[in-house]
């Protein structure tokens, strides 16, 4: 009997689950898992994960001390909640979990470095090796420079909200472990900009962008891994079969699992040696010039940071409300 698409994809690509939903991770058993502020906020609102939120808040309140304000307790719990989900996920998967630095630090190199060190220290305090965690950072120039510092300390990074070749090259030159180019968000921008309702998978602008980055990395021998992310449909995924990694939502993982068809490998390092590609060196001036010239990358990076920031604010509000309820319950019990 023929294999389904998910089985075949796993033969040429590391499959990663793009979710904070622990039950979905248990179902699909991916190698790695990625989370982001929107996914953590969504998971934190699910009844089945209320105990994780509550345990994190109770411990934060205890550690902050009796005189700590709500804001201080929530701030502590906020940082720890992504780690709490990450620890649960690491009990299921054999590989790495990606945990994101606060998006509000995206243009703050020093702040990003400090927050990343703190997140890693929380994982290590729970007995998790730094090798099993990727710190997610937005691929601004400041974020890339922060990741360069962290990589030299043995803290591995996943540069996210990546839309342009200039971002990808800067990451590779900085020795970043992994990048996450956003396929679906690139498609969204082009559909809106051109007025087109759809693109065939082979012509999808997001697919073409990841293919270009993958070929560039393999042609010039960069070790940075390429992980396609943010998929809108199954065709985008099958067109990138062979990419180093692909991080896929539970809905699309299910669709792949339920589809039996041939899956040809589309990306292969063997084929890149004969490609004619110009090598580009990206310093800050070049990065800023290329970023300003790329309307799509400029729009989507800014929009992505704004979106994650809104999710973080929602999460803080959720934690504040839950802390008040927990305190009221404790008084009632007392």
From TrEMBL:
Q: Name one GO cellular component term.
A: cytoplasm
Q: Which InterPro entries match?
A: Aldolase_TIM (IPR013785), TAL/FSA (IPR001585), Transaldolase_1 (IPR004730), Transaldolase_AS (IPR018225)
Pathway annotation from the record? Carbohydrate degradation; pentose phosphate pathway; D-glyceraldehyde 3-phosphate and beta-D-fructose 6-phosphate from D-ribose 5-phosphate and D-xylulose 5-phosphate (non-oxidative stage): step 2/3
**What are the recorded GO MF terms, alphabetically?**
transaldolase activity
Q: Where in the cell is it found?
A: Cytoplasm
Report if keyword Lipoprotein is assigned.
no
EC main group: transferase
Q: What is its main location?
A: cytoplasm
The answer to whether UniProt assigns keyword Transferase to this entry is yes
Q: Where do the catalytic residues lie?
A: 136 (schiff-base intermediate with substrate)
Q: Which CDD domains match?
A: Transaldolase_TalAB
GO BP annotation list: carbohydrate metabolic process; pentose-phosphate shunt
Going by the UniProt record, its keywords in alphabetical order are:
Cytoplasm, Pentose shunt, Schiff base, Transferase
As recorded in UniProt, its EC number(s) are: 2.2.1.2
Q: Which reactions fall under this protein's catalytic activity?
A: D-sedoheptulose 7-phosphate + D-glyceraldehyde 3-phosphate = D-erythrose 4-phosphate + beta-D-fructose 6-phosphate
Q: What does this protein's UniProt record list under function?
A: Transaldolase is important for the balance of metabolites in the pentose-phosphate pathway.
Q: What family is reported?
A: Belongs to the transaldolase family. Type 1 subfamily.
Q: Which NCBIfam families match?
A: PRK12309.1, talAB
Q: Which PANTHER family match?
A: TRANSALDOLASE
**The protein's name in its UniProt record:** Transaldolase
Q: Which organism is this entry from?
A: Cylindrospermopsis curvispora GIHE-G1
């Amino acid at each position: 009997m023929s294999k389904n698409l998910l089985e075949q994809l796993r033969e040429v690509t590391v499959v990663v689950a793009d979710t904070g939903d622990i039950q979905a991770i248990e179902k699909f058993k991916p190698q790695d898992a990625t989370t982001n502020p929107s996914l953590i906020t969504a998971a934190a609102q699910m009844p089945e994960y209320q105990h994780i939120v509550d345990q994190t808040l109770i411990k934060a309140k205890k550690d902050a001390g009796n005189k700590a304000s709500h804001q201080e307790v929530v701030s502590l719990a906020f940082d720890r909640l992504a780690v709490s989900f990450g620890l649960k996920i690491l009990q299921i998967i054999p590989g790495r979990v990606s945990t994101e630095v606060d998006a509000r630090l995206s243009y703050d190199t020093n702040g990003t470095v400090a927050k990343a060190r703190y997140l890693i220290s929380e994982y290590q305090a729970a007995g998790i090796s730094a090798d099993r965690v990727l710190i997610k950072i937005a691929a601004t120039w400041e974020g890339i420079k922060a990741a360069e510092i962290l990589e030299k300390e043995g803290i591995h990074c996943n540069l996210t909200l990546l839309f342009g070749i200039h971002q990808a090259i800067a990451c590779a030159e900085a020795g970043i472990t992994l990048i996450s180019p956003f396929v679906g968000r690139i498609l969204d921008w082009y559909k809106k900009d051109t007025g087109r309702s759809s693109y065939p998978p082979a012509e999808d602008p997001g697919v073409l962008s990841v293919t270009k980055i993958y070929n560039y990395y393999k042609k010039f021998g960069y070790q940075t891994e390429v992980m396609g992310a943010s998929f809108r449909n199954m065709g985008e995924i099958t067109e990138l079969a062979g990419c180093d990694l692909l991080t896929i939502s539970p809905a699309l993982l299910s669709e792949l699992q339920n589809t039996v068809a041939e899956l040809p490998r589309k990306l292969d390092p063997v084929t890149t040696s004969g490609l004619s590609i110009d090598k580009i060196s990206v310093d800050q001036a070049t990065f800023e010039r290329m970023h300003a010239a790329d309307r799509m990358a400029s729009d989507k990076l800014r929009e992505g940071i704004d979106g994650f920031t809104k999710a973080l604010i929602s999460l803080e509000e959720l934690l504040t409300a839950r802390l008040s309820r927990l305190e009221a319950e404790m008084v009632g019990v007392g």
